[in-house]
Amino acid sequence: MEKNRSNFTGSIGFIFAAASSAVGLGNLWRFPYLAAKYGGGIFLLAYLILAVTFGFALMVTEIAIGRKTRLSPMEAFGSLNKKWKWLGKLTTLVPVLILPYYCVIGGWVTKYGAVMLSGAVSESANDSYFPSFISSTVSPLVFFLIFALLVAIIIFLGVNKGIEKFSKLLMPLLLVLTIGLTVFVLTRKGAGAGVAYYLKPDFANLSIKTILAALGQLFFSMSLAMGIMITYGSYVRKEDNIEKSVRQIEMFDTLIAFLAGLMIVPAVFAYSGGDADALGKGPSLMFVTLPKVFNEMPFGSVVGALFFILVFFAALTSAVSVMEAIVAGIDDKYKTGRKKATVIVFLYAVAIGVLCSLGFGVLSNITIIGFGILDFLDFMSNSVLMPIVGMLTCIVIGF
Ligand code: TRP
């Protein structure tokens, strides 16, 4: 009896830890803008198919590697087979690319939480509000620094567990609020066309770009191909049922992403028409569309503030897991101690994050193979490195 009980709490704890890493900006910010941009229903279909096949297999694999080796990714691959030691290094490179720009977007969310709290909803609903915010110099940098500093402090003090407990309470709230907002948006005039665009796959919109975008998003949203799940897997006990846990994590993560899309894509149709221009807004989509929704609803500033605060916490727990992966890797490899590693990683994130942020303003003429600085890091990590690491991880297990 006693044993069963602790067994139960054990796997629930693991599920929440993994889910709080998985549910973040990927679900609420990245998924809707990709779905809007890459063909709506056909993107959703591609995503769902990849999630239940490849995503499921890869998450189970990573957790199993962690459970078997009980090592961090840096060492885990090498211990399975010396030949694959370099894959551990490659895996640790993914969070290095993601962390700086994740914190920049986290800063945008922080800013919007503050704006809603100050009651300036109608200003923020203006089309020019967001572009003028990100192209300015000081304000986005300040909010980026606040966010990055919080992430670093949490890791420095080693209070991740406390934060995870806290997010356990907040995640259901986020789910409820997202459902409420979705219902509100769906009753707006013109939203119907958006629902059709989002749910009905149109094969004319299918291209290799759609598949690649869906694949990259899958890795990002489920925190795969970067060793996080290997780390969590090292805490899982022999008797825990990995498949069942993974199914629950995946379902929760996908549900939040699906609802975020169902809230934002129809809103684009209701407030800006469904032209390619409005749909193709990319990273700015959430920040341009949602304020319009809040502006139109009763108690919009309260709802808006609550929403961005919840997104803020979801982003924070995910960012902590990204930074943790790098800190653990450095500490493992160079035996620096966690505190020193945290300071190093923080300084690195600030240096690169400042460039990402300024890339929308004074550095906007800098492009790398056609991408702005932030988009370049996003592309390299999600569309190049993660698919490679993900495929290789599956191959390694075959050996
Ligand atoms: N999955 C998180 C999100 O959706 C982001 C994230 C956390 C992540 N850890 C990761 C992405 C590891 C890739 C790899 O926001």
Q: Summed up, what is this model?
A:
With about 400 residues, the chain is mostly helical. Helices cover about 80% and strands about 0% of the residues. The protein is globular and about 60 Å long.
What is this structure's SSE topology?
Blueprint: H1 2-22, H2 25-37, H3 41-69, H4 73-80, H5 85-117, H6 121-124, H7 129-135, H8 138-157, H9 160-186, H10 191-199, H11 208-221, H12 228-233, H13 242-272, H14 276-279, H15 285-296, H16 300-334, H17 338-358, H18 373-398
The chain binds tryptophan.
Structural summary, described in words:
The chain is mostly helical and 399 residues long. It is 80% helix and 0% strand. The chain has 18 helices and no strands. Helix 3 packs antiparallel against helix 13 and helix 8 crosses helix 16. The chain binds tryptophan (TRP).
